[in-house]
Specification:
- With 305 residues, the chain is α/β, with parallel strands linked by helices.
- It folds into 2 domains: 155 residues, Rossmann fold (3-Layer(aba) Sandwich), CATH 3.40.50.970; 129 residues, Rossmann fold, CATH 3.40.50.
- The protein is 39% helix and 19% strand.
- The chain is built from 12 helices and 12 strands.
- Strands 2-1-3-4-6-5-10 form a 7-stranded mixed beta sheet, with helices on both faces. A 5-stranded mixed beta sheet has the order 7-9-8-11-12, with helices on both faces.
- The radius of gyration is 19 Å and the shape is globular.
Amino acid sequence: MRRAFSTALCAAADRDPGVVFLTGDLGYQVFTDLEKKHPTRYVNVGIAEAQMVNMAAGLAKEGFRPIAYSIASFMTARPFEQIRVCAAYPGLPVLFVGAGGGYAYASSGVTHHAGDDLALMSLLPGMTVAAPCDPAELIALLPQLLELPGPAYMRIGKFGEPAVAGAEPAVLGRARLMTAGEKVAVLTCGEQAYAAQEALKELAAAGVRPQHYHFHTVKPLDTAALARIAAAAKTMIVVEESSPNGGLGAGVAAWLAAAGAGTKYVRLGPPDEFFFGGPARETVTERHGYGKKAIIEACRKAWVG
């Protein structure tokens, strides 16, 4: 997904001379094309994320379209005060990009874990928050994010994310129908869309046909889509690699409670706790039950329940 981001970034810089890319000493050999084509608009700030945010805010004040990039935990938690005060408070059009969100860097230890990145950014008034599922969706969403009048955050993967086929195009702020179905609705965010699609293929062979909606935009949440889904499904199963507080699951649960919908809610995702040591991402996913196997089990249970 990082390679797709580099491609989309170059295209954006070609279209708009105001696009400036700032990196926190990351992305060597990933952004080479941008650095060669637009050397004055590629800035390596160094390992100084707070200063990078300050610089991005200053560039936005002068009419540029800055994009600040780092590992997700370093892009959100470390400079949170600067993002809040310098970019979100004045409503500046800065795009923050966090690579390897969730537990993509699980093996690197808790300093690199970013299960809270979507929650942190969603807390900020006026902040748009997105998490594309694959390279194609990233390429579709980046230009839309750069058209916003205010700040935005996008969580992207590391590399090697498989393509996910969808029945609808990716439109910022709108939930995307991936697979039509009935009775049960699987709602995904970020890279969990692929595991859901693989699970639904296996379920279809057994006559279980849930519908699948992908919420690449966590904030603002597409509540109109939630209303349609709740009217058609008896159970919503949210699959996410985020904290249970502040991510897609929390948003869906809050909407269901406020709307008084009778739809049953099930969440598959990591718990509200730290993961010590350096477990593999696959270990975290399996241990806490939000991978393909867990999705299949949850759908089968909901289908007959």
